[in-house]
Amino acid sequence: MSISYTHTTLVAAITSFAEDNDTEFVAHIDDFIGKAETRLLRDLDLELFEAWQTVTVSGGNREVTKPTDAIVINDLWIRNPGTLRWIELPRRSFEYVLSYAPVEGTVGVPDYYSEFDQTKIYVVPTPDQSYSGGNARVRATIRPARLSSSQDTSWLGDNVGDLLFQACMVEAYDFLKHEPAMIKAANKYQSLTPGVVRELEDIMRKAYKGLNKEKKKGADD
Asked: Taking the model in full, what pTM does it have?
């Protein structure tokens, strides 16, 4: 079972292992922890932190704003406001969707989506109408409560503390420009991950998807 960390003990461990009590370093520790938490949420892909949320796909606009605190968009569905029929949009790479629909002036029912940046996804072709008011939904991994001076405990700290610590040290050594130590921490993180995945197998997001006749066929990422 993984070692557990609170915010207090994790900050102390990072400072101790980095052997750096410099004010500037200490001031960035919460940033290291936040980045490490995001890394774990993306790598472990836990169903525990998934939620269905509504989004707005606007007519004539390919960019769709993600829900607040969404780390990863796992599924996107749209419903025709007239027929009330749901259609799943398969995810593809950004390069794929641009090649599939290179002309933004060409509109139609969206066929695919891609990650665009930290706050948006991208749909193609350009939506022919607005899919709002509950007619567009995503299943997203939502950031849980983060460790901070006002939040001393978290699910990640309680259950995967050893992996969280190594991810923090990758960020800390990157900040310190200490490449050999950063590589060592990254390798340790990679070596621990398979064991953690086995422990959490029952609550990790399953790759299986139900049959969907509307799903388009094509190359995956």
From this structure: 0.73
